[in-house]
């Protein structure tokens, strides 16, 4: 059993607070993605779980065992480092075999495991090479294979697919998901790519400025962001925020009455780009087209609406010149409400 | 523009090579040119008709040269071994751990070189006589180690700094203790640099004259011995002596050059 409890962990680097009261409870076999912008403390949290960094306060518990005094090598985990950290003086084979050799596994098992992991990451042709003669993406896959080969109960991955091309990344994503699910590995997966997090994770923990601002399933994070930051960070293009004035429990979005969670005051209405319907100019919110970007499967239309820039995604193929006037009708059931001061979600 | 740059580059390379090679070349000419060759001008490219092993031969037969050379090798080897054995761990600590007064410590290491040996010579001699190290290669080696150690520590510290900490951390993650990680990861990667540091310590000891002259009487090292013997010898003997001093250093550097240039990924191509 390898459930992970990160309990009120704080980390200060001198005057810099990298982590602030981070609490995260991960079930055995669960796949949790840590998602957040650069510098929000993802790597730091992972390193604390691995025991490579000591927390200023709080504790890490894995499988019921408090790990505060346990050195890295005895924590029974594997890790993919953000900068790979493959051993330059060893062949790819020896790199992948390293963990098993340390466990004194028998040679036939080592050979089988190494080939399996290498095959999974499509690096079986490079087993005899040294990392110095591999490309960045190949080296990164060596690092992932090295971690998978030991079949650890807990796997920590720090942006393990960041250096791969789009196609390979898609392929690796699917393979990782299958393998880790089959093995029942408890995984913490750091990324700042929100599609990766959405696609892989059972739950996403969104981090911002050293705190976890929301932990939920991918759909929940997408549908009901707890803060304005989450709405803007998760989803591409990001959520649109329109300032509205509420009176009598209703906000008016371009003449359209939408029920609001408060009776009166100023709010921000968060609307996903695909939750707008494009209508005639005299209906809904008046908007002026700025740019139309055909993206194949859908079209991204950037419009100016009430002085703000709003992005709309529509499945239709359209071909409008800039300056055209249109109307926008938000899907009232999908609007999320934020307090403009605290930027926290308001209502259910 | 490109040709100018190439010209500057070529000039630089030639100048550097000349800086090292010309003196060695003239010493070699002098050593094998015989008595006449030394004063011949202009010099030939090769020793030519005056070529002879005579100077070398006579020189090698001078009583004590072989013994002094042997002492030198012993002293330099001990100096090299001690410098690495003590300097490399100190360098590792400097590179990997941060502790209060770290920069002061770095400075102190270098300050050991600020004491003039001439002032230390008398008390050192007295102490060495007392503990029985006077007039032994081991005693000389200890002093040479004191000279080489600061550099060994500082050079190896920058060496270890060049090895990413994450490599070691990865080793810990996959089950290594600190010692194992050092042995399996850091040491192999640091080996080229450590070899360079070793050469450095060896050459410092091999070339050192002052301490060796003061601390020995009969068990002289080669440099100290030659200094006394050669001051009264003819010029071509001196060249022979000089040649003999250079040869081991060059041979040694040649022997470990593989480690100097074995930067990973290049050597394995
Ligand atoms: N050793 C350190 N000393 C001082 N500050 C540090 C140290 N390591 C990290 N920090 C700081 O802690 C904060 C979090 O860093 P961290 O590396 O965890 O970010 P990250 O979320 O992994 O970012 P990225 O996506 O760019 O990798 C940053 O502000 C960083 O400057
Ligand atoms: Mg990071």
Give the strand content of chain B.
under 5%
Beta percentage of chain A is 35-45%
The overall pLDDT of chain B, averaged over residues, is 83
What's the alpha carbon Rg of chain A, rounded to whole Å?
24 Å
User: What portion of residues of chain A is helical?
Assistant: 10-25%
The CATH class label of the largest domain in chain B is Mainly Alpha
Tally of individual domains of chain B? 2
Euclidean distance between termini CA atoms of chain B: 33 Å
CATH-level-2 architecture of the largest domain in chain A:
3-Layer(aba) Sandwich
Helical content band of chain B: over 70%
Instruction: Give the total of beta strands of chain B.
Output: 0
Average pLDDT, all residues of chain A: 92
Given the structure, what is the number of helices of chain B?
12
CATH class of the largest domain in chain A: Alpha Beta
Kindly report the name of the CATH homologous superfamily of the largest domain in chain A.
P-loop containing nucleotide triphosphate hydrolases
List the topology elements.
The complex is a heterodimer of chains A (348) and B (269).
Chain A: E1 4-13, E2 16-26, E3 31-35, H1 42-50, E4 57-62, E5 65-66, E6 77-80, H2 92-102, H3 107-120, H4 136-149, E7 154-158, H5 166-183, E8 186-191, H6 194-200, E9 203-208, E10 211-216, H7 218-223, H8 228-233, E11 240-247, E12 250-253, E13 256-259, E14 265-271, E15 276-279, E16 285-294, E17 299-305, E18 308-314, E19 325-330, E20 336-338, E21 345-346
Parallel strand pairs in A: 3-8, 3-9, 6-7, 7-8
Antiparallel strand pairs in A: 1-2, 1-4, 4-5, 9-10, 11-12, 11-14, 12-13, 14-20, 15-19, 16-17, 16-19, 17-18, 20-21
Chain B: H1 2-32, H2 34-39, H3 54-61, H4 65-96, H5 102-111, H6 117-131, H7 137-161, H8 165-173, H9 178-207, H10 210-215, H11 222-230, H12 235-261
Adenosine-5'-triphosphate binds at residues 13, 16, 18, 36, 38-44, 82, 192 of chain A.
